[in-house]
Amino acid sequence: MLHPRNSCPLRRRVPLAALTLAALWPAIASAQKTTLDGDLSDLTARAAAQSSDPSGDVSPVMASGFDFTRVLVHYAAKKDTLYLGLDLTDADGAGVPGDSDGDKNPSGLSHPEVPRDQYGVGQNEYYVFEIDTNQDGNFAGYEDLRVRYKNNVLSLERGDGADPAPGLRGRVMIGTRGATHDPHLPNQNRLTDDLEISIQGFANQDNTPRVFDTRVRAGSTVDGMPDDQNDDPIEFTFPETLQFRTRFLDPNQRTLGDCAVAFPGDVVLAEAIVTNLGTAPLRPIWMVLHFPEGLEYVSGSVSNATEGREIPTSDGVVVRFVGLGGDPELSPGESATVQFAIKVNSFPNCHMTIRGYAEGVVRDGTNACEFSCTETICLVE
Fold first, then answer.
1. What are residue 246's phi and psi, to 5 degrees?
2. pLDDT (tens digit per residue) in 9-50
3. How far is Cα 330 from Cα 67, in angstroms, rounded to an integer?
4. pLDDT digits (tens, 9 = 90+) for 146-156
5. Helices then strands, each counted (H, E), the chain
6. Which of 123, 155, 191, 285 lies 20 to 30 angstroms, CA to CA, from 24?
7. Cis peptide upstream of residue 332 (ω within 30 degrees of 0)
């Protein structure tokens, strides 16, 4: 028998971007084309969100000249890559990193008697993007993401800075005036214009919000104060043309939510709802579910869809379902509801997570694929 659980704290503690089968959870398809090249022109043209920041607004107290004039955030869904960009100089050359005395020359040679400039990204200087992934207004939570470029090293951390953020891969490229260079070489800020970072795996996060806030800080850790920061966080929306939602049902078809209590031997009922939020039909349309070891999909139990292939994995089995809603096509605005049963054989872990996503082919002449975000439901003993 399945028992309701009004909240599932275990699910909320699932690590940011935790993913056991990364290749199975693709991102939402997109026609956007963005590259990591240290040049922000492609982000300028395609960025879903950006904000300006005044040049020369660095803190006057122990400033190391780490200023930025613009922040850009763009998610390239086809690559499942989040791009973060910082424009470090304005049209007049103001905001050159390390130019503490404001003469647009970070070498310190213009004022040798007071050498305040610090044009090398030394062990204390940093740029950091903070992303509030659960929309609680706090950027330093365990589930949040901190993207830090410090001492020529890029690190992806949890918001509290205590642990690395698993399941993500990041790269950085610095743009110079007319060329790009290896970002790991020291003392290279003299000609730096742009800082561009790419993060792969952002779609595969076990977080409900589809809207994220991003803020940026830059400066030196010597004084514990950022030289510059954008006071108004950038908000960007994760694109979701194909929506996939899952939940448990009791024997009377009443919704129990995305987490419930069960025991070995129970057969539980679950439901998946797939909605086409786009403007073109999707045909064909299918969904994929991963059942971890200890849980078994009850063969023949699906309604309103057709069973496809079952693929064994190292920690369970993946099952594909086609013809969602009993129709090979899902029209714009249409939803398909599919129900299926799960048998609980054992609990190798204290909670068992079922992951899934939906996919369809867009019939608008492009034949592009649309992917939903990954959704999860969990059973606890």
1. -130, 155
2. 222 222 222 222 222 333 323 334 678 877 888 887 766 677
3. 49
4. 998 876 788 99
5. 2, 25
6. 155
7. no
